[in-house]
Design a protein that fits this description.
- It is an enzyme of class 3 (hydrolase).
- It catalyses: GTP + H2O = GDP + phosphate + H(+).
- The longest helix is centred in the C-terminal third of the chain and has 25 residues, at 412-436.
- The chain contains 20 helices and eight strands.
- It is an alpha/beta fold.
- Helix 2 runs antiparallel to helix 3 (46-62) and helix 4 crosses helix 11 (287-294).
- It has an eight-stranded mixed beta sheet with strand order 3-2-4-1-5-6-7-8, sandwiched between helices.
- The protein folds into three domains: 6-87, Four Helix Bundle (Hemerythrin (Met), subunit A) (Up-down Bundle); 102-285, P-loop containing nucleotide triphosphate hydrolases (Rossmann fold); 313-353 and 368-435, Signal recognition particle, SRP54 subunit, M-domain (434 Repressor (Amino-terminal Domain), Orthogonal Bundle), CATH 1.10.260.30.
């Protein structure tokens, strides 16, 4: 989980602060010492840490914070604002050209995920109504062109390539003319990388830049390389002049130091982040939302945006009616489960909900994977039932359970476990309905909107 260790340390520090009715300068100094250690352990650049602590301390002690009614909250607010500023302050968007095509050059070292990111960026722009063209300019790495063509086919994006032996500058130049004749309003150029920075690579990139005059040069870096990602960003920026950073594998980096340092060190904003290996659109980077998540305040805006993209509003209304009438069936559960899967991992969802940190800790080690083996097993069991059985689990006797287990390739114990937990879940939903009395939860999350309230979901061990 991204920023997990940093988030835990900071929340523990602020919990101590909240225990003080009135803060002294000594309390603030001690808290800042803890924050400094937490940031350094998270692999944040030490100069960035020094400046950050100095700024927060000056604001905390200089604004008569110690005399306010809730000094701890004011200190947390200052840390939140300064973390947001550290990561760029506001969201940085792509500079779209008023005269198409907008040319975007993707650069970076080998292994950072440049080719996949080019496809994911194309998908993100396609969802905004653009018509992107992917351009294969990596003529050195074996099968690089083929990889981009496979990614393009999977995402239904056109890919421009030329015969082997054609140089990268010619391919880039030819792709612009091609895009104009094929009504592509965005050209995304996938350039060659190296295992490390060398002058030959940089010269080729400078030649492509001079030829096609890109509106955006985006550097793709692997968040898991930590401070090395910041060093790479600095080198590329000095040589090429970057417009933004795409940070990949951010969900795999529990420390997150690169994300916190790159803007402060290079003055180049993070524009997009990649989470996971799946071919899903890159996510825009919101510094304020990320700061809130680090401090355990959640990121409801991103969750709601994701839910709106994922859930069918009409389907959600139908589900709400069924819940009110207590007609929720295994068919409905399967439908909701498949929609929730699209939101990402349960850990990620809980990280976006304020106050869910405790529940997330409780669920650690329970091997909950919203797209894992157990979820697929549940789907297989439900799909092996007849429509009548899914509508009324009460009719499922011993012989039916054996038939369902055989049809789904599972054991009778697995079928029994699902039925038992689904029954418990329905009872809990009845209780929650009475408790809520008309209160509204997250739109469209239906049966799974109250994850925290259920004793055990059918996909938990």
């Amino acid at each position: 989980m991204i920023f997990e260790s940093l988030s835990d340390r900071l929340q523990a520090t602020f919990k101590k602060l909240r225990g003080h009715g009135k803060l002294t300068e000594k309390d603030v100094n001690e808290a800042m010492r803890e924050v400094r250690m937490a940031l350094l352990e998270a692999d944040v650049n030490f100069r960035v840490v020094k400046q950050f602590i100095q700024t927060v301390k000056e604001r905390a002690i200089g604004q008569n914070v110690l005399d306010t009614l809730t000094p701890a909250q004011v200190v947390i607010k200052i840390v939140d604002e300064e973390l947001t500023n550290l990561m760029g302050g506001t969201q940085s968007r792509i500079n779209m050209s008023p005269n198409p095509p907008t040319v975007i050059m993707m650069v970076g070292l080998q292994g950072a995920g440049k080719t996949t990111s080019a496809g994911k960026l194309g998908l993100a722009l396609k969802k905004q109504g653009k018509r992107p063209l992917l351009v294969a300019c990596d003529i050195y790495r074996p099968a690089a062109v083929k990889q981009l063509q496979v990614v393009g086919a999977q995402l239904e994006l056109p890919v421009f390539s030329m015969d082997a032996g054609t140089d990268a500058v010619t391919i880039a130049r030819s792709s612009i003319a091609y895009s104009q004749s094929h009504a592509n309003d965005v050209v995304i150029i996938d350039t060659a990388g190296r295992l490390q920075i060398d002058e030959k690579l940089m010269q080729e990139l400078r030649d492509i830049k001079a030829e096609v005059r890109p509106h955006e040069i985006l550097l793709v870096v692997d968040a898991m390389t930590g401070q090395e990602a910041v060093n790479v960003a600095q080198s590329f920026h000095e040589s090429l002049g970057l417009d933004g950073v795409v940070m990949t594998k951010l969900d795999g980096d529990a420390r997150g130091g690169a994300a916190l340092s790159v803007k402060a060190v290079t003055n180049v904003p993070i524009k997009f982040v990649g989470m996971g290996e799946k071919l899903e659109a890159l996510q825009p980077f919101h510094p304020d939302r990320m700061a809130s998540r680090i401090l355990g305040m959640g990121d409801v805006l991103s969750l709601v945006e994701k839910a709106q993209q994922t859930f069918d509003l009409e389907e959600a209304k139908k589900m709400e009616k069924k819940l009110r009438r207590e007609e929720f069936t295994l068919d409905d559960f399967l439908s909701q489960m498949q929609q929730v899967k699209k939101l990402g991992s349960l850990e990620n969802i809980l990280g976006m909900i304020p106050g869910m940190g405790g529940l997330k800790k409780q669920l650690e080690g329970q091997d909950i994977d919203l797209d894992g083996k157990e979820m697929r097993q549940i789907e297989a069991i439900i799909k092996s039932m007849t429509p009548q059985e899914r509508a009324d689990i009460g009719i499922i006797n011993g012989s039916r359970r054996k038939r369902i287990a055989l049809g789904s390739g599972t054991r009778v114990q697995d079928v029994n476990k699902l039925l038992k937990q689904f029954g418990e879940m329905r009872k809990m939903m009845k209780k929650m309905k009475k408790m809520q009395k008309g209160k509204k939860g997250f739109p469209g999350l239906g049966a799974l909107g109250g994850l925290g309230g259920f004793p055990k979901m059918p996909f938990m061990h």
